[in-house]
Amino acid sequence: MKQLLLDFTEAPAPTFANFAAGRNGELLAALDAAVKGQNTERVLYVWGESGAGKTHLLRAFAEATASRHSRYVRAADFDGAIAPVLVLDDIEQLPEDHQVTLFNAFNERTFAFLLVSARSAPRDLALRRDLASRLATGLTYRALLLTDAEKSAALAAHAASRGFPLADEVRSYLLTHARRDMPSLIGALDTLDRYSIETGRPITVPLLKAALRPETAA
């Protein structure tokens, strides 16, 4: 259903390689160090508003540390099972009883490394104060939203990695008409590349429009 390309294309699996860092280079470096076991801290806390890529990074981290028995789970769905490398998304959604579970895991050193995300800084968390204090003892980074210019540059870089140029007007059209989170934008661009190869046409704004409405394409 190519006419639904820009709205419904499936985003690629999250990795560090397909994360557009923008101003988050220091955060990405800290996560890479944690994957390699080079961090001295047991906790890494990532906070920021929705759309900044927190879930992407947490899922990528869990996949990269799978050999260390990592576990990714949304905090609202946490069942209390503590993994050696525990990755909890949206920590502010952690149920009250499991806040106690996680606090005890800190004290008993049940996990080797904990990566969490939240929308607010540790001091502003609506959690038990003793747990919030524990979460603040490690490294804390704010995930910053990409600007449109950074998204455009990331799209151009991704296109170059796939071996084709991406004109400014095509990037502008994507940013205007596609979902604006980077995984969806990258997924749309990859699908567009395949459509370009299939039709034998270069990637242009008219091709984008044809991909949306192939039945009207010349």
TrEMBL record:
One of the record's GO cellular component terms: plasma membrane
GO biological process, one term: negative regulation of DNA-templated DNA replication initiation
Domain Chromosomal replication initiator protein DnaA ATPAse intervals: 15-70
Residues passing through the membrane, by range: none
GO MF term (any one): DNA replication origin binding
Residues of the Hda lid domain: 148-212
Record-linked Gene3D superfamilies: 1.10.8.60, P-loop containing nucleotide triphosphate hydrolases
PANTHER family: CHROMOSOMAL REPLICATION INITIATOR PROTEIN DNAA, DNAA REGULATORY INACTIVATOR HDA
Name of protein: DnaA regulatory inactivator Hda
Organism expressing this protein natively: Usitatibacter palustris
Gene: hda
